[in-house]
Structures are given as structure tokens and as C-alpha cells.
Amino acid sequence: MARRRLRGRLVTQGRPRLGRRVRFDLAPGALVVLGDRCRVGDGCRFHLGAGAAVHVGPEADLGERCVIAAHERVEIGAGARLGDEAVLIDFDHDVRDVERPVREQGVLTAPVVIGERATIGAAAGVLRGVTVGPRARVGVRAVVTHDVPPGVRVEGVPARAL
Asked: What angle do CA 111, 154, 19 make, to 5 degrees?
């Protein structure tokens, strides 16, 4: 039944492995591509708005209860690792007009890109417009608000290079 509901919006390449209770909340026109031998842990959730896309590269590993929320695009490179409960989100609420309610102001979007073999620590968050370079490391519970160069380790809130 789930396959019928997601037809054309969930594309698998090769043999990805999905854990139990993985949830796909995909608007019309949204697309999730799961690469060969990627692993999506138990309880992971994908929330995509209309026209949004998420690409999970081959051999990428998403820990348990990760959340991917997209209105535009999220890319997870080949061999990347996301710790349990990591969050990737490519949008923010637009709050420039303090006189209007937030729900009437829309959202601001920018792609999130996780490079090949990058590691995102448990419960870390990567926010809109951020690129985490190849082989970079994001510490546990860090909040990444700016790009992380290749091979660099960042930690903290907001995340800073060590």
C-alpha cells in the first residue's frame, strides 16, 4: 500500500535498507532518491514540500530517528554518516515583518548539502543554506549555521571550528 501511495515520489537505486517505522510525508511533486546500500535507521522521517528533493547517496548511513525536512533540496553524499536524531532542514520562517503573523509570511529556503564521507553527530542540526564539506565532522548536539570546509571538525551552538 505504501508503494502505491509513494509511486514516482520515492526512487530507489540498487538495494537501500530501510529500518522499521520510517515515515515519508511527501507533497505532490516531491522526490526522495535513496542510493545503493544506503541505510535509513528506525523511525527516520522525511517531510518534503511540493517540488522539494532529497538525494541520499550510496552507502550513506542515517541513524535512528533522523529528520529530513525540505522545501527545496537536501543532498547527503556517498558514505556520509548521520548520528541518531540528527536534523537537516533547508528552510526557515520569514519573520522580517513583525506586524504580520509568521504563518502569513512564508518561508526562506536554501539547499543543504552534506559532502561525501562527512559525519554529523547525534542530535546535531544542520540549517538552511549550509554545505558540510567532504570528510568534515560535526560534533554531537552542534547546530551548524555556516558552511563547514572539507575535513574540518566543528562543535557547539552555533558550531565553530576546533
From this structure: 60
